[in-house]
Amino acid sequence: MGAISGAGSVNPGQSPGILTATSVDLSSGLDFNFEFTQFTPDYGAPTASGNDVLHLTDSTPFLGNFSGSNTVNVYLNVAEDPIPDDTYLGGFFSEVDPAEVSIAFSEAVFNYYLADANGPVAYDGTNYRAYDGEFTFHPGWAAQSAQFAGSAQAIDGFSLELTTVPEPQSSAFLLGVAAGLLVLLRRRRARSP
Fold it and tell me: How many angstroms separate the CA atoms of 71 and 111, rounded?
């Protein structure tokens, strides 16, 4: 495809798959829906990539910056619930380093969903529920070398990377427990003859 613009939603692939376009114009409030079924997409399988990918080929892949009017919905249809430091790749793939053009996700609205047969949200024939687990997802960019179907060689680029990190209150709780254990150990050592 050429450039994508407007105020609708972009749904790459065929549950899941890869859509190639030159660029996306974020200024009119484009939204994005990405289905992830594994940690890393199979870039060479455009209709069965495992994770949805919007492959952007232009030297200016993003027109404008992500804002509160851009929603990115991530539908996790994975075998197990997320655990700490899980990393999921997919969604966007840019052949230009987004950091060089100051593209950041800080203002975008990210929603995360987990597959659930009884979930109230339906997407592409699967029911989901909003993720309400003990981790948050940190979106960023990861350098990737991807061999896309029809490409003679691997393309170096940058993929959306979602990493699970503990909720701030969970981290504070764990630090509190660790501090308490250290105090107890010190008291025991102080009492030992």
Answer: 7
Contacts of residue 117, Cβ cutoff 8 Å, sequence gap at least 6: 127
For the CA atoms of 87, 57, 74, 165, what is the dihedral angle to 10 degrees?
Answer: 30
pLDDT (tens place) for every residue of the chain, 193 residues total: 899 998 899 999 767 999 999 999 999 899 999 999 999 999 999 999 999 999 999 999 998 889 999 999 999 999 888 888 899 999 999 998 887 766 778 889 999 999 999 999 999 999 999 998 888 999 989 999 999 988 889 999 999 999 999 876 544 444 454 555 454 455 555 555 5
Query: What's the pTM value of the predicted model, to 2 decimals?
Result: 0.83
- Evaluate whether residue 114 is within a structural domain: yes
The answer to whether position 175 is within a domain reads no
Q: Report how far residue 97's alpha carbon sits from residue 132's, in angstroms, rounded to the nearest whole number.
A: 32
- How many domains does the chain divide into? 1
Is residue 74 domain-resident? yes
Amino acid of residue 49: S
Q: Which two tokens stand for residue 96?
A: 């230009």
Find the distance separating the first CA and the last CA of the chain, reported in whole Å: 77
Residues 113 and 72 sit within 8 Å (Cβ to Cβ)? no
